[in-house]
Amino acid sequence: xxxxxxxxxxxxxxxxxxxxxxxxxxxxxxxxxxxxxxxxxxxxxxxxxxxxxxxxxxxxxxxxxxxxxxxxxxxxxxxxxxxxxxxxxxxxxxxxxxxxxxxxxxxxxxxxxxxxxxxxxxxxxxxxxxxxxxxxxxxxxxxxxxxxxxxxxxxxxxxxxxxxxxxxxxxxxxxxxxxxxxxxxxxxxxxxxxxxxxxxxxxxxxxxxxxxxxxxxxxxxxxxxxxxxxxxxxxxxxxxxxxxxxxxxxxxxxxxxxxxxxxxxxxxxxxxxxxxxxxxxxxxxxxxxxxxxxxxxxxxxxxxxxxxxxxxxxxxxxxxxxxxxxxxxxxxxxxxxxxxxxxxxxxxxxxxxxxxxxxxxxxxxxxxxxxxxxxxxxxxxxxxxxxxxxxxxxxxxxxxxxxxxxxxxxxxxxxxxxxxxxxxxxxxxxxxxxxxxxxxxxxxxxxxxxxxxxxxxxxxxxxxxxxxxxxxxxxxxxxxxxxxxxxxxxxxxxxxxxxxxxxxxxxxxxxxxxxxxxxxxxxxxxxxxxxxxxxxxxxxxxxxxxxxxxxxxxxxxxxxxxxxxxxxxxxxxxxxxxxxxxxxxxxxxxxxxxxxxxxxxxxxxxxxxxxxxxxxxxxxxxxxxxxxxxxxxxxxxxxxxxxxxxxxxxxxxxxxxxxxxxxxxxxxxxxxxxxxxxxxxxxxxxxxxxxxxx
Amino acid sequence: xxxxxxxxxxxxxxxxxxxxxxxxxxxxxxxxxxxxxxxxxxxxxxxxxxxxxxxxxxxxxxxxxxxxxxxxxxxxxxxxxxxxxxxxxxxxxxxxxxxxxxxxxxxxxxxxxxxxxxxxxxxxxxxxxxxxxxxxxxxxxxxxxxxxxxxxxxxxxxxxxxxxxxxxxxxxxxxxxxxxxxxxxxxxxxxxxxxxxxxxxxxxxxxxxxxxxxxxxxxxxxxxxxxxxxxxxxxxxxxxxxxxxxxxxxxxxxxxxxxxxxxxxxxxxxxxxxxxxxxxxxxxxxxxxxxxxxxxxxxxxxxxxxxxxxxxxxxxxxxxxxxxxxxxxxxxxxxxxxxxxxxxxxxxxxxxxxxxxxxxxxxxxxxxxxxxxxxxxxxxxxxxxxxxxxxxxxxxxxxxxxxxxxxxxxxxxxxxxxxxxxxxxxxxxxxxxxxxxxxxxxxxxxxxxxxxxxxxxxxxxxxxxxxxxxxxxxxxxxxxxxxxxxxxxxxxxxxxxxxxxxxxxxxxxxxxxxxxxxxxxxxxxxxxxxxxxxxxxxxxxxxxxxxxxxxxxxxxxxxxxxxxxxxxxxxxxxxxxxxxxxxxxxxxxxxxxxxxxxxxxxxxxxxxxxxxxxxxxxxxxxxxxxxxxxxxxxxxxxxxxxxxxxxxxxxxxxxxxxxxxxxxxxxxxxxxxxxxxxxxxxxxxxxxxxxxxx
Lengths: 694, 694
Description:
Two copies of one chain form a homodimer. By secondary structure, chain A is α/β, with parallel strands linked by helices. Helix content of chain A is 37%, strand content 16%.
């Protein structure tokens, strides 16, 4: 109708414009979107059964992207500590470029679920929904398949997604944990529009000669269409697969192939390819740049040097970033971009998309909005409210076997105390739960630090929990609480990172707990007396007797003897010298001993950030809850010297800082009175006589 | 011709496809690419003289991007230390998304040129050319215009680009230093294709009511077409402007307006708008998302909440990131992404574009390729070859006035020693040149640290040079050389960051240099005796007498008395106690005193990375070049305690590390023999008697 007036000229003009647009869409590269020369060679020996279906996708321009606020669905299988780290990098790249709301479907084992649940809960990225699916429940469906691929059993789980994901979920993009996005996933989602009526699986051709079966003598790959397809990135029409009887289909093929082949070499990919070889109408080939495969002998260069744009890179070699490839440096830089990217910065709204805010986000916004910027303690209050992104068990960790008197050492640190870890491991052979306050970049430095340390990498009972930095004040008590919450033994030794415990302390504490019959019968905090050395080369005493000799020689002091004696005076060092049995001491103002308590002890008060009063408040809380304070006669721990932290430097030089700590203390006491009534009066009375910097 | 066969159906099909493509291009938003509702209101009172020209650009879809490897031209005016930092963030965002080779035309004052020349030279980003233009030479062309805008005179320089840039440069994108890219600049470059035959200036409409003149009573803005245009992002057809007599045109308009208006309020933007109001055919309006303006009362939300995509954000408020805007948090996160982005990761090749490598890149590649990964010292050799990105004078700095005996304190540090800076400033009132080894993120933390420190922000004579981290070993001597090269006084005091000099040292050194008549007549290194305290709270001696008392009391030691006495023994502390005049000492093995030397002294040997032998080698070099070693009787400096660095920890625990330091020492001695012949024999002989960890 519109054409009626001057069809011919309009037609010509439209065609011209089309050519122009085509030029735009293909970036001036007539091959864009098509399999490369490599692609042409693919089906040499083995032409696809439905070449029309295959070729069609090559010439059609990219379809329109999904509507601005359409929810895109993504599924990822992830198990264990290391894959969880990989998934986070993948998700960071995904979130960086996305403009649409996302729903992530995560098929995880218990370890990955624990990590990722905490992570996403604390990450609070707008417009991202997360659903978890129990991988262990899916295991029986694939565990019968012998498999040699490094991804193990979990590599096979992509096969069961049509039944594992919700029945009303029709389309999903399935990603391996080792891919990195370099573009907006909506462009990939848009390729669903290319599918013909029957096609159900979108895949990029394999960028190696593996399936051609000529890599070495007697190389017998699984059957595939020509060069085969790579399953690192899959567009799945779940609805069609269910309708086509997918489960039956792949099991039949796999069973048949396993009659002649001993095992899958490439996990799910072998089976996907075998099914596709049998039912080629299922597959919609995708443009190569949506899965640029960087394995050792990759043919990907043909793809990325011609395409105007890289879309997704895939580290599909067991060597990952150490793969040999002449351009690997450039790809690695893209990967490192997201590995080291500050995930907090992804808390960006999608303008114009009405999405429900992440849980807790609204309350947080309100609380933040109520703060007054004029308040001298604004920075403190803002820091207290900050929800830090938390990555628990950042490195592989084996929980300690359940033992009734076991003790976990709990501490927190930042980058500048990393060099304490080796010594600490030598002094404490038991389980530890450590919170590390790091940037994303520092977390990677930390990872390398552990990997290159023989001492640290030998320990599987040390759990490292990364709390990502945000704000200007060190959230010391929030960090302690993260480490404390992750301790898995019945007792915890609440220490600080710049202390080294006596070599015998771990054993001695467990024996003491048993002897004192603390389990349930007695509510006590065991005090570990604290000392300090001022020499940073120092020979650690192997016994109490040796310690006392050093003390008398002036090589050791009781902790903060010069600057802040009241912090430890109630421990009564004079009595400790002679003591043969545990003795009870009374709380006094500013007392902040290092103690062993049951895991369910009160948490630290998160209002204390930066330097000042953070432990003192916790000991008050213990005393208010009527914990006995019992000093152990053979226990000791020694503080090593270090330069003052930035926070302590700020505290000393800034009167506002001190005023704020005082204001926080006052508020703490008010809360204490509210909670414990008259019993809390003694703490307030003690406070009336200020005696030190806190 | 092609159409002849079946024009009608083909025309219809083409139109259908066009609609489909249109949907794709406009993201399903029929308003995309057009001025928003706000745009419709723009010309209410003041319709453009050439509405056809204006409207045409609204309905034409984005043109094809430039060919894959086309060189894109960008011009930026930049002056001073702070703007240089801003430009780097802008350039990082530009490089992150670009896929084309770029030529940056930087119009700079001497300060910015010095900074940016060093930066780009050491950055070595592939496919980026840089040209500098002297802003000071252009000043007379704009300095006659009275201007109230915060950008000052430099804000006006965009007006003279057609004559300042090379005459054969036809097109350029001009950017303010306060914009951030969120997309590929090639898409912006492609908009040149929208220009009609006469149009020469592409601009986004102003996103505030400023030019409507109704913001307050008696608000008299410069004349503009409706809401006017913002000049933070400009597409300039330089060829057409030159042809149209641009210089004459804008000067005429400006002169005329200045008859009735007292000064420009918005610098160049007022004049651009006045010229455009007079010659509306010059302007091609650009889609709003190419310059999303985040000033205080911005109307930008209309733009960014409808557009599918943000392209460029513009912090066009003097408050910059502290501007009040309900979505500022999200924009800030995008900005922080690039502020904190590791610039090293932008050393990414453009696959498939033949570009000449950056200067030095090929030699570097060859040298790196010759290293053997099997070599136990591979990491050391790789670190030595690393070209670190260097940002000299990261913060505002005023060079010291030339004085013949002035001394600059030279040192290097990383984040963990930042807290030393305030104390150092109190102890050394003279000029300092400090190299800081930081990540991009840490550089921002450092900036905030200085800004919030009253002591540090009061000092303009401390030059901070950021050397960006790369590799696992601390490049200590490269850092020292950067700091040394930037010292501007005739003498330098080569110190370390964990030392505090005597309060009187700066004055005393200048007096000594004068007295000893060092200028030219005598080749000497003045030794400043070094001591150490083991207490981190410590009252600093105010005189040599007080220092000796502390020494006798055991509160102070000579430096490394316990661990490495040979490092300072040749200083002869016993003699120093009594000395009243400078005395000469002889070199001995492992001597590493802190010295004052002329600025043109030998550089440190960059092969020594990490811990070990880095200063020792430098003192050998001084001795080999026959510098007299003169100990100053009243000079002293004191080392404060700190935890051992990660490098020293590695050194102690790793035998390979020690072997490599030994190998480097051997190579150093071989070079020494080659250079100094028989005279170097004594160093080798001394080496035969190994006495310590180095």
